[in-house]
Design brief:
Elements (H helix, E strand, L loop, with lengths): L3 E2 L2 H4 L24 E5 L6 E6 L7 H11 L8 E6 L2 H4 L33 H13 L4 E8 L6 E3 L4 H9 L5 E4 L14 H4 L6 E9 L4 H16 L14 E10 L6 E3 L7 E3 L5 E5 L4 E4 L5 E4 L5 E2 L5 E12 L1
Parallel strand pairs: 3-4, 3-5, 5-8, 6-7, 7-9
Antiparallel strand pairs: 1-15, 2-4, 6-8, 9-16, 10-12, 11-14, 12-13, 14-16
Length: 327
């Protein structure tokens, strides 16, 4: 892996508030795929998957899965599958350098396209994705739990198809929803794979960014949203809840790419920071320190990046979708 571009602000985000949970007791799985546990109610209903630790250093997902397994979260309708996505990378997590060990050979959230069919590609993550594919192919609703580098409210990344928008509007524990082109042109992510990426298919994948990677609050937020998700897709009965905050629906208008691999934030911005006016200062790009300004009025900054690979993005500018603020 190429070295990360680090600075003083980045180093403020390297404190790990909790230890990674031991997942070794789940290694065998119960359907013939390591670290995959599936439970069928024998009643009609969808097949629902909750996945965590697709990235080895996003350790909150493992804690959430273990809690749900230990608390015997089981479907009343349909089927629930719990998937530890990349356990080999997770096993290498080091609290002293938590930004490392995101993956072993390749980002497993970028190998869901032609890599799966390439017989010469025998990287660790590609082999794991191939092992997961038979079960993923049968999933109707997927919640893929991630965490993010910056602080701020959780955000769900989804396809802009009707089925996804209709579902996400009911998961009121999710405060921010993001659609649109979210990355540079790269390889296929799990949330865009097969049935999830088909605009005419009712299958839905949600990539949840539950909070900052190593803050304990990400566990609580992710677990709350995971339970809400299971209720909304119909495998668990709905529980009465206090009225949720309004859900903000955004779409990406610009990916922030630094010039020459150099970028410095003007200050420490949280995920979802709102800028009322165009031309607000986000940071400085390139050796000439060119100002990076918000491109529109009423602009949001989404998922600030602090451990950036050379050439990688620094975040996304987004706008609110008219008529898409759910009560």
């Amino acid at each position: 892996m190429a070295p990360f571009v680090m600075n003083d602000l980045s180093r403020r985000y390297t404190n790990v508030e909790y230890a990674p949970v031991d997942i070794s007791e789940y290694a065998d799985g119960n359907i013939g795929i390591p670290y995959v546990w599936s439970y069928d109610s024998k009643q009609p209903g969808p097949h629902v998957m909750i996945c965590g630790i697709m990235h080895g250093n996003e350790i909150a997902g493992a804690e959430i899965l273990v809690r749900m397994l230990k608390n015997t979260v089981r479907p009343e309708n349909g089927r629930i599958t719990f998937c530890f996505g990349n356990p080999d990378a997770y096993a290498r997590f080091d609290c002293a350098a938590p930004y490392l060990n995101r993956f072993i050979d390749a980002d497993i959230n970028r190998v869901w396209g032609p890599e799966l069919e390439d017989p010469y590609n025998q990287g660790s993550e590609v082999r794991r994705a191939r092992a997961l594919r038979p079960i993923v192919d049968t999933v109707d609703y997927l919640l893929d739990i991630h965490t993010m580098q910056g602080r701020g409210r959780p955000v769900a990344l989804i396809q802009g198809k009707t089925a996804a928008l209709d579902l996400i509007a009911n998961i009121t524990s999710i405060p921010i929803v993001l659609t649109g082109t979210m990355h540079q042109a790269e390889r296929l992510r799990l949330r865009d794979y097969a049935q999830f990426g088909d605009p005419d298919d009712k299958a839905v994948a949600i990539q949840l960014e539950a909070g900052q990677h190593w803050e304990a609050s990400a566990i609580a937020q992710g677990e709350l949203i995971a339970m809400d998700f299971l209720e909304c897709v119909g495998v668990l009965p709905r529980q009465s809840k206090p009225r949720a905050q309004k859900q903000l629906h955004l779409e990406v208008v610009e990916i922030v790419l630094p010039k020459g691999g150099i970028f410095e934030y003007a200050k420490d911005f949280e995920n979802g920071t709102f800028f009322p006016h165009r031309g607000a200062l986000l940071g400085f790009s390139g050796p000439e320190r060119v100002e990076v300004l918000t491109p529109i009025d009423n602009c949001y900054f989404i998922m600030p990046v602090h451990f950036r690979l050379d050439g990688g993005s620094c975040g996304r500018f987004a706008r609110s979708i008219p008529g898409k603020v759910s009560a």
